[in-house]
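Hi, here's the filled form for the chain we discussed.

Project: internal
Contact: R.S.
Residues: 310
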Amino acid sequence: MNKQNHLYGHLAAGFSIFVWGTTFISTKVLLEAFTPLEILFFRFFIGYAALWLACPRLLRTKSKKQEALFAAAGICGVTLYFLMENFALTITLAANVSVIIAVAPFFTALFDWLFLKGEKPGPRFLAGFLTAIIGISLISFQRSAGMRINPKGDLLALAAAVTWAAYSVITKKIGEYGHGTVETTRRIFFYGLLFMIPALAILPFRLGFYRLADTKNLLNILFLGLGASALCFATWNFAVKELGSVKTSVYIYAVPVITVISSMLLLNERISFQSACGIALTLSGLMISESKARLKGSRLRQKKQGSVQD
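And the returned structure, exactly as it came back:
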């Protein structure tokens, strides 16, 4: 793997997670005037339009299998993931959702091993996963809001984590076809919006463009559509293409960390000692999981060097 592209992959994944970790602020503001489904539709419609403007070149798939993978990525990574996460947030604690969603890297590693013949998750990956989950739990479950089991909401959050893992593995496979990142992301958005239509017909939805006359609403929906959707999905897909689905998904651990820090900076919220410990454990878990690949690569290089000297 090209070292420069490897670095760009890590930067792209880190950027995506940084932006996604701050989107809760925009979503919280928009929920005063929009339903979760309306926010979801508008942000991805804006993202889809922006990607056409950025790259008006048509993507041509070479087989029905490729097209089916794009459709699967759209329904998993856009439609199902966000619908299930949003509905989970309405019927269970946000703290529960944040911790449950963080298990997505584990499912990603499992799916990569089972379906793409990737490496079996080893002790170091599992140690990093458990360390990060403990840290995220400390961040999420403060004394004032302990965990309360809500089967429907918690199962929806778990299903969302599974669908995101599936999305990551599918996009890894799509990356092997050599299509451009922008065109790939745009095609995924197309299917995500297409599969959203049944939900639009069943659940409460209205266009109500007058709400965008409020500058606050307009800026936040543009941030979600252009930044968190169009740009970040493209950078995330690029990271998956360069690093693989497992290494990229590990960055999900950092989302609660970014959320807490952005709350401190933008909402003047204080970071408690418990949250500080949680942040330290979460970042440690991320580094433990990531170090696995570096150690393996180092051993392979040493082995090659030894065989050359012999």
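Let me know if anything looks off before we file it.
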